[in-house]
Fold this protein.
Amino acid sequence: MTTNIPRILAVLFMVLVTSAISLPAADVAPAQPTIPDRTFNVCDFGAVGDGIASNTAAFMAAIAAVEKAGGGKLVVPAGQWFTGPIDLCSAIDFHLEAGAKILFSPKFEDYGNSPRYRPLLQATNAHDVKISGAGTINGHGEAWWTAAETFKQEANAKKARSNTMPRPNMVGFERCERIRVEGVTLTASPKFNLVPARSQDVTIYGITILNPHKKSPNTDGIDPSLCQRVLISHCVIDTDDDNIAIKSGGPAGEGVSDVLITDCTFKHGHGCSFGSETSGGVRRVTVRNCTFEGTDIGVRFKSDRTRGGLVEDVVYENLTMKNVGQAIVITSYYPDRELPKPGQKVEAQAVGAMTPKWTKITVRNVKSVGGTKSAGLIMGLPESPASGIVLESISLEAPTGLRIGYAADLTLKNVVVNAAKGEALLVEDSVAGLKCVE
């Protein structure tokens, strides 16, 4: 059942933060890669930048030479460099000069066999790896997207849990240390664009990610997975799935920690997200000074009973949103079709290792204008309510209000929801401990 609260609501609450509540560190400073001062040029190894000749062997030879020398900068000059998969070594700066465009082969078989495709460009068990410059990495994703969209539609029709056709990610780091990706443009990825996984000290600065909206399914922008000490700043991401998705799909305790996302612009996409895999846990994350323009969602936490875990000590702050579908979404029902209808009673289940738990989350200083769907959603589980959440200095415009269910100890301070239709806050009977003062 929905509680009636005035349509335009200004909610004030004075919150005392006790010493028991820890907040994310304000800054994250990952260790940076150290690259020896020596330079190689891919042309010296037989590469031809005409967009036609295959340069796979030339890239392999050049990177082998860098590795044998103990590291250095490998320069890719202006030109169109057609190639198959590339493996980077340790202590390398893979540098794309202005006008350089790497064109990856569109042949599926070049990247292994379904479902275990390898990334187009990857580093595995490496240290001190850098990708830099003003060039472009193009994944020929259009070769994959039509089949992936058909797969997605068929899976949705069957209400299958997964609707993602296996495809390779474009740039991947697996179990690496001291990574920096700077300046480059990533475009036309077959699937996720940039995935650091089980890696430490990751810096992603000033990159651009471009994939066509509604034509490039599941093309997440940046997905840090089971990583520690990650800084993502001054990036522009325009894509057809999560702009950023922090993933933690490992055993409890192996998760993500110490992440700062700052001064980024998110255009088309599904927002700056946590999940849906959170079983390994996520803690100490800050998202600040970011702009959302036409994204489906802004602030997003998503998981379900089959892949959840503890997510805590998270701050989103100083965010500007324009024409965003939903400003704030925290849900333990993913995908959306599993969401209970307003007033629907849900049976509690036993709490286990995969139960989602959202706690100690603060969202503050957010202004959203021109919202296109609703103000948002906060929906935990009957056995695991979303708890310890603070919304502070929030101004939201949307067609409908903010729905809240299965939540406890929710604090609203200086929150204004302007709903064009219906109530500003749709608070269900399953909510306990809503602390607010008009």
Summary: The chain has one domain: 2-435. The chain has two helices and 36 strands. Confidence is low (pLDDT under 50) at residues 1-23. The radius of gyration is 23 Å.
